[in-house]
């Protein structure tokens, strides 16, 4: 014990010395500290308590969405789960995990452990209605023979999302979209990229959940007030918002309520987007 402790102190001292010489090491230490802080807010045990059936062979994605992949992916997004007070941070993580759970759910009303214990069950869309290629989009041209169907935690879809996601994250989204369902760190990164990136006129989901969203006149007229419901609007409002008692919206809310409870935080107001216009 004392020997190990001694060498640890020595290593820390060494790192401190080296970081004076190489500023980049200080940046690495920052990423390490943030990863530690995320691991503190969401432990491996909590992650497994949320995704009770992640390793169930009934789930096509079983074993794919690993806790360590999530933590590693989050290193590329230093402000995720790391903005505001601990309650805000936990609520943001719960909201993110709830939305990706709906996107990948394998649950049904009478499923074992309830419908909201089956997040992260699928990694790709099983019967896509098309290859999701919008050929009028010249900025992100489709690669022959590739499908831009839903893949990964956020079910990234369309060429105009695969292109910019790949560019931001360092892979060729147009030529190699399959990587999103083959590499779990990249998969989580696409989910976080969507969550963190503002796509005008929409704010980022992150800004909404950490209280940095400032509604425009158009937002006020459309009743787009901050809350989890607005995040749903950003993700799929065109199909789900402005509808009374939409079952998809209810599923997203059900996941969020369960996760917020596991994180010991309240959900905040405006869970629904029933009275909001979509973008
Ligand atoms: C396809 O892209 C064009 C141009 O970017 C856009 O106007 C149109 O709405 C898109 N269609 C779909 C189905 O996304
Ligand atoms: C990548 O994923 C696709 C399905 O999206 C699968 O057909 C292919 O075999 C996978 N490739 C590797 C190398 O795992
Ligand atoms: C919402 O729909 C569900 C069925 O999907 C139904 O059981 C419930 O009573 C409805 N609630 C309201 C408020 O309309
Ligand atoms: C705006 O949304 C809130 C709930 O988020 C609702 O109570 C209110 O009635 C809505 N207002 C309008 C004008 O639709």
Automatic annotation (TrEMBL):
Keyword Thylakoid: no
Pfam family for this entry, one: Glyco_hydro_19
Swiss-Prot/TrEMBL keywords: Disulfide bond, Signal
Superkingdom of origin organism: Eukaryota
Gene3D superfamilies associated with the record: 1.10.530.10, Endochitinase, domain 2 (3.30.20.10)
Disulfide cross-links: 59-121, 133-142, 241-273
CDD domains assigned to the protein according to its UniProt record, in alphabetical order: chitinase_GH19
Catalytic site positions: 103
Glycoside hydrolase family 19 catalytic domain segment(s): 186-196
KW Amino-acid biosynthesis (keyword) present: no
Signal peptide from the UniProt entry: 1-26
GO biological process, one term: cell wall macromolecule catabolic process
Gene Ontology MF annotations: chitinase activity
Protein name: Glycoside hydrolase family 19 catalytic domain-containing protein
């Amino acid at each position: 014990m004392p020997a190990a402790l001694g060498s640890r102190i020595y290593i820390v001292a060494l790192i401190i010395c080296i970081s004076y010489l190489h500023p980049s090491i200080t940046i690495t230490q920052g990423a390490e500290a943030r990863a530690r802080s995320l691991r503190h807010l969401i432990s491996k045990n909590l992650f497994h308590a949320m995704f009770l059936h992640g390793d169930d062979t009934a789930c096509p994605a079983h074993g794919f969405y690993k806790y360590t992949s999530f933590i590693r992916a989050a290193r590329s997004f230093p402000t995720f789960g790391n903005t505001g007070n601990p309650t805000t941070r936990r609520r943001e993580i719960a909201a993110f995990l709830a939305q990706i759970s709906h996107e990948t759910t394998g649950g049904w009303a009478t499923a074992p452990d309830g419908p909201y214990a089956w997040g992260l069950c699928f990694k790709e869309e099983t019967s896509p209605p098309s290859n999701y290629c919008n050929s009028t989009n010249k900025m992100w041209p489709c690669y022959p023979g590739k499908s831009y169907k839903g893949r990964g935690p956020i079910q990234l879809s369309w060429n105009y999302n695969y292109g910019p996601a790949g560019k931001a994250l360092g892979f060729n989204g147009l030529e190699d979209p399959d990587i999103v369902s083959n590499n779990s760190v990249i998969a989580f990164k696409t989910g976080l990229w969507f969550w963190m990136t503002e796509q005008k006129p929409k704010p980022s989901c992150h800004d909404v959940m950490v209280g940095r969203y400032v509604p425009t006149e158009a937002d006020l007229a459309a009743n787009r007030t901050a809350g989890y419901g607005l995040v749903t609007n950003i993700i799929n409002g065109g199909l789900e918002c402005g509808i009374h008692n939409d079952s998809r919206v209810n599923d997203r809310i059900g996941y969020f309520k369960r996760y917020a409870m596991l994180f010991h935080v309240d959900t905040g107001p405006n869970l629904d987007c029933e009275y909001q216009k979509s973008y």
